[in-house]
Every structure is written in structure tokens, then in C-alpha cells.
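Morning!

As promised:
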Amino acid sequence: MRSDRGQKAGWPLTLAAAGGIAFLHLPILLIFVYAFTTEEKSFQWPPPGFTTQWFAVAWNRPDVWDALILSLKVASIATAIALVLGTLAAAAVARTQFFGREAISLLVILPIALPGIVTGIALRSAFSLAEIPYSMWTIILGHGTFCVVVVYNNAVARFRRTSSSLIEASMDLGANGFQTFRYVILPNIATALLAGGMLAFALSFDEVIVTTFTGGQQSTLPIWMLQELIRPRQRPVTNVVAVVVVLATFLPILAAYYLTRDTESVAGSGK
Amino acid sequence: MARRRLRGERMKVLAMTSAVSFSKVSRHFGAVRAVDAVDLVIEPGEFFAMLGPSGSGKTTCLRLIAGFEQPTSGHIEIFGETAEGVPPYRRNVNTVFQDYALFPHMNILDNVAYGLMVKGVSKAERHRLADEALALVKLPGYGARKPGQLSGGQRQRVALARSLVNKPKVLLLDEPLGALDLKLREQMQEELKSLQRKLGITFIFVTHDQGEALSMADRVAVFSEGRIVQAGSPQEIYNRPRTRFVADFVGSSNVITPDAMAKLGGERKWASLRPEAIALAGEGVEARVKATSFLGSATRVSVQAGETALSVMVPAGHPVPEADAMVRLSWKPSDVHYMEGEA
């Protein structure tokens, strides 16, 4: 209905838009370029030459592998915990009426609104008060606080869109609680859980602040990268790892977007 | 002789087992008495309507039978078995939901076969039975489609097939025709009625549409504020409403106040007088014609007799008075139906 539909934008607007996009994405492109540079001590522009040797170097460094494996473990376990707890919390808030429901809803969402540093400090002092030694599990607990939120948010939205009579219909047709969950609830919320889970995984995978406070001696991948930047040796290895991290977090998010994009009508057609 | 007596005894036992019976059943939500001490007996094979305005407790009664609600007090029996504490999935009762509640992620065949699937019927067998059920509701060959691809009327038929495939003893229908357009609604009324006769299953349906209740049901219970005000055949409900509420809600009947009735020559009681029972005749109560509306087979004439507004149905072929004309109204005293309630 817009009157200027189909017309071309003026050149100042085009330029401003292009500038904005460039400002957002050129630095990321630089990370990719520096992964191939031959200069290892400083990031020199333009790169004096290009090489793929840093990929081999990175592959052979055990500290890279340790950090990567720890990150994958932490992200997987935190996501798994978040999927269970987030779904249960969402089911309770969206499906039932109880005293303090709104308060519970707010408390579940709060960790993602809190600055990571507050969460981190709070958890660190709680851990030391309770004399819990820092380990992979303390990192997982820290990540769990915000992973639960993203799963919860996705699941609660889907639960609210799913007609409650579907569950009643299933029970009415002879399905017990488990069968109803397996055949009706789970298929209806599956894509929402997948999207929430992938988002939770990606958030956990590149988390720095909470990890700094809740981790012990071991480093997750982002922490390792931060430490690497201070050392003026084999710098492009950091960039190689950065490329891997970008791909590892970008692909699941893209997949989550495509998986949930077409489900609106499906979820609503039971209404 | 002995055999005959035995048979007689058996008949008596069978006759005693009602499909659904409520004794003093209440369901309160906090301070709200959604269902308030309802007594109700529905016989096997009956087409029973629960009629009432929204919030009158009819849907809660249906949910009590289905098992989605538990009574606060009182006792419910379904075919002689106590229903309290029995979850919906262990009741031989199925529901057609108002929004149909078809599973959006399954195709039509799997939707219809769902009840059989959770009971462990083999795939081939349940698909065969589901196909049969789809044929019964006149949707053969729709099995591969998804619910989103069907029209409202078709979805309702699928919901019906999904319930009937389980061979329930009682089928509950929650506002079954509410979401359909007029023509489809009339067609489905006929079909539901003939389906019920064919299968012999007890149908209980909830509606706020009095026309639907009167035309489809063998027996109607009129609900108001959590109670059954009157239960009886459609003729009884229509011709002999027990209270003003029933007369108001069920029909286009003239409801006359006690004072007005006394002035019109009757008893000082609330009364109902059907428009078609009033004749425009040479003698009787004088009235002024306010308006007329042509309905095809008859003309509705609104008249004012003193302080009382009445509606008179003049059959086609009889002279219709002009607006503002003075007419005289007469009726047989036996057509006046007096109702309960304070004068």
C-alpha cells in the first residue's frame, strides 16, 4: 500500500545503509582474512601473504582441542539441562493456574536480563560460600541460568499457541499422560524446543563473562581465545579458531530459523 | 414360566441401567457454582440436548461426563459404573470438541486412528477401521490430507469419525454446529440425527441454540445458573415451559406478567401464550397493531393490548391488518400455559 513501493531509494539512503552493513560485517571479514595471513606476530594490513598453514598448526595444538572439547561438553550438557527444565517450567506457566505464577515467570526470565557479570559474581560467591570446587560442572550451572531462559521463552510461546483441547482430545481418545506427551505434546513443541536448544547451545558456546567467574583452571574456547590474544605468537591460530566458532554458532542459529519459520500455521491450525 | 420371569427380571435390570446418571452433582469453582446439585438421568440410545445460555453449567456437565472435571460433591454413574476418580482415558465416552481439536501434525487417517493406536491396535487394522469411519461420515479418501487442508465442516466430520471409531457408549458433542454456517448447520443436524439412529449410541450435545436442541434431541434439559430448570421432550419444553426463564429462552412465546394476565381475563400468574395460538377475531381483547413482518409461511403481527405487547402469528392466506389498525384478539383458555414463579 506504500506509495513509494517499487521506487528506488535515493543515493544518500543507499550509501548510509551500505555503510551500516559494512560497519557491522567488515570487522568479521577481517577475522577471516587474518586466519590466512603469513605474518604471525601482529595483525598487519594488508597481509604480506596468504597461507593455510595455521589450520594445520591449530589442528596440532592440544590446548585448542582441550578448550574446544570443554566448550562442546559444557554447551551440550547446559542445553540438555535447559531443555528439560525450560520445557517443564513453560508447561507449568502456560498450562496451569497457581499462586505466584507471574512471579515464577519473571524469575525464570530474569537471568537473561541481568548483566552476565552480576550473574557471574553472584554464582562465584555462592559457590565459594557452599565450598563447591570450580569445575566443568560449575561452568555448566552458570550457563544453565541463561540457557533455561531461551528454551523457556520458545516453549512457552508454543504452548500458548497450542490449543489446550488437543491434550484433552488425546486423553479423551484413551491416551494416558505419557502417550499424550509422546504423540501430541512433543510433536507440537518439537520445533520450538529445537530452536530454543540451538540458541541455548550457541549462547553457551561463546559465553565469556559468566564462564570467567564460574570456571576454575580450565578454559572454554572463548576464554582460551582471550588468553591467546595477549601472547604475540602464532596469532593467526586464534583467527582460525574464531572462524570455527563463527561457523559452529552461526549454522545452528540459521538452521533453527529455517526449522521454526514455517511452523506458525501448523501450530495454530488446531485452534 | 420361570424362564419368562427370569427374562422379565433381566429386562428390569437393563431398564434400570441408565447411560448417564447424576445425583446431586455439584461442581464449584471457588465461589462460582458452575453446576449446582444437578439430578439427571439419560437413557441408553437417547439423543439428549443440554440447552442454556453461556455460563449456565451445561458445558461443565459435559466435561464432568467426559472426566475433564471432577464433581465437588454428588455422584455420577456411566452405564452403572461410578465415574468419580476415573480419568478421561479410562472412560468409554468420547467427545467431539467445539474447536474439533484435530492434531495438526498428523494426517486425517492418523487422527481418526489415534484412539486405536494408543490402545495398541495394529497399524493395518486401525487404518482399515479409520477408513471405515471416514466413509461413515462421508469423507472417504481424505485420509492423506492434513487438518489444515480441510474446511470447517469437513474437520467436524473428521472429529466425529475420530470419536466414533472407538465405539463409545456415549458420544459427547460440545456445540457441534456452532462454527458452521447456516446451510451446513441444517445439513449436519439431519446427518447427526440419522447417524445417531443408525449407530444407537447415546448422544449428548451441548448447545445454546434452542432451535437446534428442539429439532435434534429426543429430550432437552434447559440449564440456568448451574441448575436444570426443566427436562423433557422438545414438545413439552416448547408447549409447557415450567418457568418464565424456559419460556423466554426456548421459544418466541409470549410471556405475560401475572397482572397483565389478570387483565386479559386469566389467572393472576405468569403465563405463556404461543403466537400461533392467538387468533385475530371479531371479538375478544382489543389491541393496536404496532408492526407486521412477513415470514413467508406466516406473518408475525406485533400488537399492543393495553400495557402488554404480544406477538401474533397469522398463517399465510389469512388477512393481515395494517399497522395502527385496531384488532381484537382471542385464544382458547386451554392454550394459556401458567408457569411457576412468584406472582
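The two ends of chain A are 30 Å apart (CA to CA).

Hope this helps with the figure draft.
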